[in-house]
Amino acid sequence: MININNLTFGYSRRKILYNDLELELKEGNIYGLLGENGAGKSTLLMLIAGLKQPYSGTVNISGHFASDASPEFLKEIFFIPEEMTFPNVTIEKYLSVLAPFYPKFDRTAFFEMITEFGLEPTMNLHNMSYGQKKKALISYGLASNTKLLLMDEPTNGLDIPSKSQFRKLVAKHMSDDRIFLISTHQVRDLESLIDPIVIVDSGKVVFNETLDYITEKLVFTVAEKVDQSDVIYTERGVAEDKVVALNTTEDFSRVNLELLFNAVLTQKEAIKSALSK
User: Which residues form the ABC transporter domain (predicted)?
Assistant: First the structure.
């Protein structure tokens, strides 16, 4: 379990980004981290990874704190940033340097993944395209077998077939003792993968729920199919209006993550009330 307690951080003392942030992440889940541009999703991942230091508060992984940057903490966390810089070495050479830092690194799985992504061990990381570098780093991260894997916009730079491969590989390498936290704007790329959904806004976690619980409490449909008194949020469309409404009939619908995200940001109290009933 990962516990973030009373975490406060800002890029200046006058402008605090996170104020007493609380978040608990449990094993066996692929969390989707959503938020507006500038909400601090990438910053939060860096704080969890120990790459930035908070003004106050703690990030705790199995009793080890990010601020200590101890070997016990670092061997249980792998961070895949959106922007990557690699040295002028081959995939295989970089593996020989990286893998010893992660005691549970699965070399066999790594080579299987890069093969599926169409990469060769002898390819030079420095000379590869952005998408190829992203595929290599995803493979390193999944094969590390760390307790916590942080991914910042992992599908950026991937073509459509590669996005499908990414989803399959993430699902395959998720286990009951791992936690994946994926920050993304590309919710449609990950709709079938991320669960629970975490939304940050104004320095707080304003939403943290599983898809099962969301579909139990809310319905995602078109306006004409629900009683208007049950509607919480509406998005106007050319042909039809999409809505988020109270699930009063126990009919389960597929969660529309874009619709949910917009509803949470504009109707926080109504969504909170609906989920608490």
Answer: 2-227
- Provide the whole-model pTM: 0.94
Q: What tokens appear for 121 in the block? A: 């061990």
Token duo for residue 174: 């998720």
Asked if pLDDT for residue 213 goes beyond 90, the answer is yes
Nearest to 181 by CA among 151, 146, 209, 161: 151
38-42, 75-79, 105-109: range with lowest mean pLDDT: 38-42
What is the DSSP secondary-structure string of the chain?
-EEEEEEEEEEETTEEEEEEEEEEE-TTEEEEEE--TTSSHHHHHHHHHTSS--SEEEEEETTEEGGGT-HHHHTTEEEE-SS----SSBHHHHHHHHGGG-TT--HHHHHHHHHHTT--TTSBGGGS-HHHHHHHHHHHHHHH--SEEEEESTTTT--HHHHHHHHHHHHHH--TT-EEEEE-S-HHHHTTT-BSEEEEETTEEEEEE-HHHHHHHEEEEEGGGS-GGGEEEEE--SS--EEEEE--S-------HHHHHHHHHH-HHHHHHHHH-
Q: Which pLDDT tens digit goes with each residue over 43-72?
A: 999 999 999 999 999 999 888 999 888 999
Closest by CA position to 221, among listed 251, 194, 191: 251
Domains in the chain: ranges and CATH: 2-208 (3.40.50.300), 211-276 (no CATH)
Kindly indicate the confidence band of residue 163, based on its pLDDT and cuts at 50, 70 and 90.
Answer: very high
Residues 6+ apart with CB under 8 A from 248: 227, 230
| CA of residue 177 relative to chain centroid, distance | 17
How confident is the model at residue 25, as a pLDDT? 95
